[in-house]
Amino acid sequence: GATCDGAWANPTVSLQELLLAEASLPGALLQLAAQGLGVQVACALTRLCWAWELSDLHLLQSLMDAHCSSALRTSVPHGTLVEAACAFAFHLTLLRFRNSLPVYRVPAVALLVTVMAYAAGPLTSAFFNPTLATWVTFRCSGHTVLEYAQVYWLGPLAGMVLAVLLYHGRLPRLFRRNLLYSQRSKYRTPRRKPAPGPGATQTPAEGRSSREPGAEGAQTRTPLSPKTSCQ
User: Of 167, 176, 19, whose CA–CA distance to 95 is shortest?
Assistant: First the structure.
């Protein structure tokens, strides 16, 4: 059957692939446009479904939608830090399990998202998705658009860039040299023996004689003359 493997509804994932030099700039821009359009269509269909009032919950959601409250229930700097931390953990997990089998990758990502939703939900609703946060909470009262952009755009982008930089030690699209980790060569350079000094030069014959066993004793012996041997 057909699957959606490789499709993401989060623009920070598309930008991560761009920073990793795995996607071209036109392809990344096309993904961002598709994600924004998809979220807009989904929100419109959701409000249409609520307007039909098929259940009491739909009626309640339709009434709440007209007077929505901000999802940011903490200070702007704290919210930015929370969204950045969630995005950092999310993207670091994606990088760690990117080459793993789906049977391991999918549960790991799902478990992480669930834990972060429970931990950071009361503070920022744990979106760490700029597109989703834009259409859900930017129109709600309580904060300005600039404050929302700082929390829900700048926070996730900073967390994503930090995750890529920490995992790879560089941003492959921008830098070729590793900025954090030193790369050691796996090939060792053989050590060279020091060259002999000017006073330690030897002729080839002397070098061979010094390596032969018993050569030193043979050189110290004095040969007998014929007269001495006759006596």
Answer: 167
